[in-house]
Amino acid sequence: MSISKLNPIFILAIISLCGVFQATNSKSKKKFNGLHLRMIHIDSPESPTYEPELTDIERINRLLIMSDYRIQYLVNKTSQRQVEPDMASLPIRRQSLLYYVQIGIGQFNDVHQPYHNNYLVFDTSTDVIWTQCQDCRHCFRQRFSLFPNRKSQTYRPFTYTECHPSIWRGDHCEFYAQYEDGTEMRGIWAHETFTFTSMSSINEPINGIDFVCAIDTYNNPTGKVDGNNIITGTLGMSKSEKSLFSQLGSKVQYKFSYCFQDFGDHDGQYPPMFLSFGDQISQPPIMYATPIFTIRHPLAEQFYYVNLVGISVDDTLLFIPPHLFASNINDYVGATIFDTVATLTHLASPAFDILLNAIIEYVTQHNIYLKRRTDILPDKLEACWEPLYDLAPVHFPKITFHFEKNADLIVQPQEMFPTLSGIPGVHLPGLSCLTVARTFDGGFNVIGAYQQINQRVIVDMEKSLLLFAPADCTSDTH
């Protein structure tokens, strides 16, 4: 098993866009026969950010950096620190570590190019949709042209009556965002047409989507000399009212779904994956369901919170003090966030220590051909094991996360202990490392993307449920 299996976060969501736009009334009650975005693994030759020369260590290190930045963001948002309410989740320079959506924005009188293609970061914890626009005065450089907002037939800035008085700036409604790395972005709130692909492969333009047209991006380290940046903005998919998911709302029955593949051995062939919306979502006959709840915190209401009630190693339930997982609508401490940008699962430090000690005890008892390595650990990983000789037999436990309403997320050993190969001086197949880390600050927990591999995940906000079930994601049919 190679580190390529540690890449669920390395996925590029791409929509196949073709055909001609049709006008859609923004107030329409029309429901669509399912919408989807096709997702492509970033290490596939199809990906525009394909980097075949990266080693396993380079891949794991950038994954860990990404996960660390994500946790810092979540800590800031859930703590009582005074941060901007519109603070975005991640610096755009993290582009090689995220999901992307290539989506058509606007309507143009051009039969060959009736919309403008944009690559946007896909993020389930971000509030808004934004992209750099042609009116931008200070922009980070990007590979593709800026969105020509003034030429779009459907671009319409917010009027004064549509804008909160506190952010009206004389002739436009302003949005302001600040990133953890010092990057700042200012933009104009506007309405625009976005195009999706239906389950029947028909393009579905949706008019009147609220988004931010970025006109200033300061202190952004992404501005490479060659202007080779892929990402132009962010596609927010959180619970907040301005996210794409919330704006689609009843049109897609308040549902979206994904199924992350295990990218171990496909001989370079990556089956299609889909981010899917609406009633046409593929749903296994039996699924676990746990309630999604909201914490009354002005900066952190948009996350998908669930109640984690316990953890088992193999089939042994660990004794973890209940207060470490106890959460309520008024306090984020003990809460658990289901997230698609954090690569690793993160646990509050006391709970992590209990899990780590139980895993070390299990591995020690069940393996005579493994030794723990503490001298060459990748940053942030606290437990790795090396076989005593090439291809020695190893046995790691499954880990079960128990959620409210008897919903069990069972993570198989290959997803919990992936192998880093090609490390000099390490016996084959390589180091097997625990992909759970501790949260030093914040007191909350995060279920990361890697622990969601080969799980069909459905967010159903009409019923306020998070559903999941084991699935073969290589045969994803939406």
Description:
Keywords: Aspartyl protease, Glycoprotein, Hydrolase, Protease, Signal. Residues 99-469 form the Peptidase A1 domain. 10% of the residues lie in helices and 30% in strands. The protein has four helices and 28 strands. A hairpin with a 5-residue loop joins strand 7 (174-178) and strand 8 (184-198). It has helices at residues 56-78, 244-248, 349-366, 413-416; strands at 11-14, 35-41, 99-105, 116-123, 129-132, 156-157, 174-178, 184-198, 203-218, 233-236, 255-259, 273-277, 288-291, 305-306, 308-313, 316-317, 336-338, 345-348, 370-373, 384-387, 399-403, 407-411, 419-420, 431-433, 436-439, 445-447, 455-460, 465-470. The chain has two domains: 3-274, Cathepsin D, subunit A, domain 1; 284-475, Acid Proteases (Cathepsin D, subunit A, domain 1), CATH 2.40.70.10. The chain is globular and about 70 Å long. The longest helix has 23 residues, at 56-78. It has a 15-stranded mixed beta sheet that branches. Strands 16-15-21-22 form a four-stranded antiparallel beta sheet. Strands 19-20-24-23 form a four-stranded antiparallel beta sheet. It has 478 residues and is mainly beta.
Q: What's the SSE blueprint?
A:
Layout: E1 11-14, E2 35-41, H1 56-78, E3 99-105, E4 116-123, E5 129-132, E6 156-157, E7 174-178, E8 184-198, E9 203-218, E10 233-236, H2 244-248, E11 255-259, E12 273-277, E13 288-291, E14 305-306, E15 308-313, E16 316-317, E17 336-338, E18 345-348, H3 349-366, E19 370-373, E20 384-387, E21 399-403, E22 407-411, H4 413-416, E23 419-420, E24 431-433, E25 436-439, E26 445-447, E27 455-460, E28 465-470
